[in-house]
Design brief:
It contains 2 helices and 3 strands; from the N terminus they run E-H-E-H-E. Helices cover 24% and strands 37% of the residues. Strands 1-2-3 form a 3-stranded antiparallel β-sheet, with no helix packed on it. It is elongated and about 60 Å long. The chain has 87 residues and is an alpha+beta fold.
Amino acid sequence: MRYVSVAGRGTLVHDRARMEELYTPSLDIWFEQGLDTPDIALLRVTPAECEFWEPKHGKIVIAAGMLKALVTKETPDDTMRHERITC
């Protein structure tokens, strides 16, 4: 129930040792040849701005509010907390 957005400048990194540290077999779904896949690279992002949204209330309070809204036909309080961080 959280959403994060990171905006910034990206650069491709061809660092085999770092890729070996980060690579896991589950990535074989996208990279059939593993680390030998042509043009495989890492993406380094230098963030410029980050934002996130998350509910102001916990799951139980949200669920209770939705149940109440079903009975009363009122709009539930689904207010989100939003923050922006400039790096």
